[in-house]
Amino acid sequence: MGWFSKIRLGIIFIVAFIVIVVFIGLLTSNRTATTPVEGSISAVASPFEKFSYVVSLNLSNFVTDISEYSQLREKNEENEAKINELEKKLAEYELKVNENSTLRGMIGFQNQNSQYNVLPAEVIAIDPTNGISLMTINRGSNDGLGVDMTVMAGTDLAGKITEVSLTTAKVKTIIDPMSTINGRSTRSGTYIRIEGDLDNGLIGYIEPGMDVVTGDLVVTSGLYGTYPGDLFIGTVNKVEKQEGSLELKVSIIHGVDFRTINIVSILRQV
User: Fold this and answer.
1) For the domain that residue 138 is a member of, what is the CATH number?
2) C-alpha distances in Å from residue 233, one per residue of 50, 127, 194, 202, 269
3) What pLDDT is stored for residue 104 in this prediction?
4) E-assigned strands of the chain?
5) φ, ψ for residue 79, nearest 5 deg
6) How high is the pLDDT of residue 155?
7) In the prediction, which pLDDT does 100 show?
8) CA 14 centroid distance within chain
9) Any bridge partners for residue 252, and if so which?
10) Do residues 116 and 267 touch, judged by C-beta distance below 8 A?
11) Is residue 33 assigned to a domain?
12) According to the model, what pLDDT value does residue 2 have?
């Protein structure tokens, strides 16, 4: 009980103070003036009353702030949900726009190349071990597909079929490192040997003195039967010398964004 002895005097003082304040309140409730003793006690109690008022006011403001914070958080969560929904709708809209653009290109290609029967297909998988150089489409032998058929993305060359099942097919894209294309410049007619490059897209090679410049459009040459002729491959971005080689290196920007491709078409001879 040693601890009680230490605080006993303080407890007695606080109790006595409260009794005096209550007593004064009762005595002065119906009077307009106070006695000197009451005034002295009131003067002593005044700072405590002020402290009590400030604490009460701050506590009220704190409770109000907590309530407003809760309301703001709920409103913020509602706004975030609306933003997420709008972003989802925007992504769906952009996807539809891209699909429509690809389909329009496919129809335009069909109208200009009546020798082909263009069959649309959806990209359903991309082999993660090969970057974007190998993809799977939802068409197969049941749709008349066969190995080495040409695959387009709108009006641009995308690759060729390398494997077929009943309902699906594997497509090796033109940027696969093992892919080779015989191309030519539409301006000069110069032939370009083109290889796939996952980092740079497409790299071509020409002999010194051959007429190929930046901005030339490159299409398939039709040689060796790898691809039909005059299919768009890309645009020449740079022509430069190679160290230790006589051939000039031709950097080509291909016309297909393989990072977002989702619709392709297969060319079948009529």
Assistant:
1) 2.40.10.340
2) 84, 23, 10, 9, 20
3) 65
4) 116-126, 134-137, 150-153, 156-164, 169-173, 180-185, 191-197, 201-206, 217-220, 232-242, 245-254, 263-269
5) -65, -40
6) 86
7) 61
8) 66
9) 202, 236
10) yes
11) no
12) 57
pLDDT score of 99 = 59
Give the DSSP per-residue string, 140-158.
-GGGT--TT-EEEETTEEE
CA proximity to 179, closest of 163, 166, 161: 161
Taking the CA atoms of 43, 48, 53 and 58 in sequence, report the sign of the dihedral they define.
Answer: positive
CA distances from 186 to 63, 191, 213, 257 (A): 76, 10, 11, 22
Residue with tokens 């022509």: 239
CA-based nearest residue to 124, from 176, 90, 171, 179: 171
What pLDDT score was predicted for residue 78? 76
176 in any annotated domain:
yes
* Number of domains, the chain: 1
- Domain containing 267 equals 117-270
Q: Are strands 201-206 and 232-242 parallel, antiparallel or unpaired?
A: unpaired
Q: Is residue 134 within 8 Å of 168, Cβ to Cβ?
A: no
Domain assignment present for 17: no
**Does 246 fall in a domain?**
yes
What does the alpha-carbon distance between residue 118 and residue 123 come to, in Å, rounded to a whole number? 16
Series of mean pLDDT values for 10-residue runs along the chain (270 residues):
55 59 52 53 54 59 67 76 69 58 63 79 84 90 94 92 96 92 95 88 92 96 87 94 90 87 86
- Which candidate, 225, 218, 224, 221, places its Cα nearest to that of 252? 218
